[in-house]
Amino acid sequence: xxxxxxxxxxxxxxxxxxxPKPSSSSTNKDASDGFETASDGELGPNGSDDETQHxxxxxxxxxxxxxTDELAFKQKSFEQANEVKLEGNGLFGNGQYEEALSxxxxxxxxxxxxxxxxxxxxxxxxxxxICFSKLGKYEDSVKExxxxxxxxxxxxxxxxxxxxAHEKLEHFEEAIADMKKILELDPSNDQARKAIRRVEPLAxxxxxxxxxxxxxxxxxxxxxxxxxxxxxxxxxxxxxxxNTGSYSVSFQR
Length: 253
Description:
single chain; about 250 residues; mainly alpha; Serine Threonine Protein Phosphatase 5, Tetratricopeptide repeat; 2 domains; 7 helices; elongated
């Protein structure tokens, strides 16, 4: 099924998600600025308090430096993850789906655990989903779309791709559920509305088929039991009462 027409080059996301660069801090500031040092002989009555304040200020500066370094490291990791994702997009555009899958997986491993990485990670999962669909691995496509939606529940493209994969797997009820969710998020999506009308008869036919298979299994089970007594389920007839809607069973030889 195709809910949304996409060109090959548009199948992947090209978003570059940037996070703010860490603000520069006055790390070159002289460590003695803001307080005076004194030898032990020059310490007055509050000398010990001044020394404690000095240690606290040093610790605070070290902590600020550590936080800045951590943010810089996360930013670098984010930039690397985004570059790898773009490489995956290029491979996808060339039809190299297995190689693109590897790049998207690497981008997911590089992406730091921070709020601004959520969009990047959801895009990578969704892009892995379309790669799996291209390779005919629809179960894997469903799993990747689900991961993308766990990160971003309103991700329309992931919903569309999961609905497509569900239909390929003949999971018609699940496909319809995804299409209805698409319409909740985007009521103007006529393609999803048309897809629901197309898939609903398929879902009904599958339900009837499953019902017949279940009845057949129950009939076989009943015949295996009744056969010991020289009977079969065909000796019993269920008649529906039009007034009450209940059934009565009669025995026929």
